[in-house]
Write a structure and sequence with these properties.
This protein is of the alpha+beta class and 252 residues long. It is built from five helices and 15 strands.
């Protein structure tokens, strides 16, 4: 029995050690993990055609929010042809054992403003940004700032990712384009928040209900390999040795 107990304790310790080695590590911009520095990057949410059609129904305007950059283009008839919001990366969470990205977070987003429109909207606004894309659980969280009593919701569970997700690897490289995240399906709570914030009425709510995919998220990221401290020490020793040799030659 004593041997069995010792075996169980050893197994638990082994599992705990494995879990610790595979811990998730948060790397902020400028931070270093295993001699790799996160220099920065950006994430872009591109609205789907269905979402743009819903915006057209409510005559909803799109503008930048909290340091993000919103882009909205229309055709000659005034209908949206492209809407996107780009924000700078603030941090990434990396599996320290595999170097796979567990999540990526950005700062900034876009504001949608709906006018008073009979049968469509009583008026309102909705800012969505500071996205945190969770690759492991296939969810997207956001900061939501809504009118009509919604207020500010932080780290709000907004979308499910229904399409397959690829966890890219944290490696050195400039302006790397990670695998696109697509198939953003709004949660029930997120849908109700959109409706309340924008003051959507029957027609506006009906248009939003037709949106089954809110768009895609494309991420660009820059990571630089940095020398280990011991490398800097060797370089310093080399420089010192060269200096000593030069002084000896001059003395001779």
């Amino acid at each position: 029995m004593k041997f069995a107990i010792k075996g169980i304790v050893a197994a638990v310790a082994f599992v705990a050690a494995g879990a610790a080695s595979a811990a998730a590590t948060t790397v902020n911009v400028g931070g270093i993990l295993d001699n790799l520095r996160l220099d920065g990057g950006s994430g872009t949410l591109s609205f789907s055609a269905d979402l743009m059609a819903a915006l057209d129904t409510g005559k909803v305007a799109v503008s930048s929010w909290n340091g993000g950059t919103a882009t909205a283009t229309k055709d000659v008839d005034g209908f949206y042809t492209e809407v996107s919001a780009t924000a700078n990366i603030s941090n990434v969470v990396v599996d320290s054992a595999t170097h796979k990205y567990n999540s990526i977070a950005v700062t900034g987003g876009a504001t949608q403003t709906s006018p008073v429109l009979k049968g469509v909207s009583s008026g309102g606004s909705l800012s969505v940004g500071d996205l945190n894309v969770d690759y492991v659980n296939k969810r997207v969280y956001a900061t939501v700032v809504g009118a009509n009593g919604v207020g500010t919701l932080t780290n709000y569970y907004l979308w499910d990712i229904v399409n397959p997700v690829v966890q890219d690897t944290f490696v050195a490289g400039q302006n790397q384009i990670l695998t696109t995240v697509s198939g953003l399906q709004i949660t029930a709570g997120g849908f109700n928040t959109f409706v309340q914030s924008l003051g959507l009425l029957s027609l506006g709510k009906g248009a939003l209900q037709t949106v089954t995919d809110f768009g895609t998220i494309t991420t660009k990221i820059s990571v630089t390999a940095v020398p280990e401290p011991s490398t800097y020490a060797l370089m310093a020793m080399g420089v010192a040795a060269v200096g000593v040799a030069a002084r000896r030659r001059r003395a001779a």
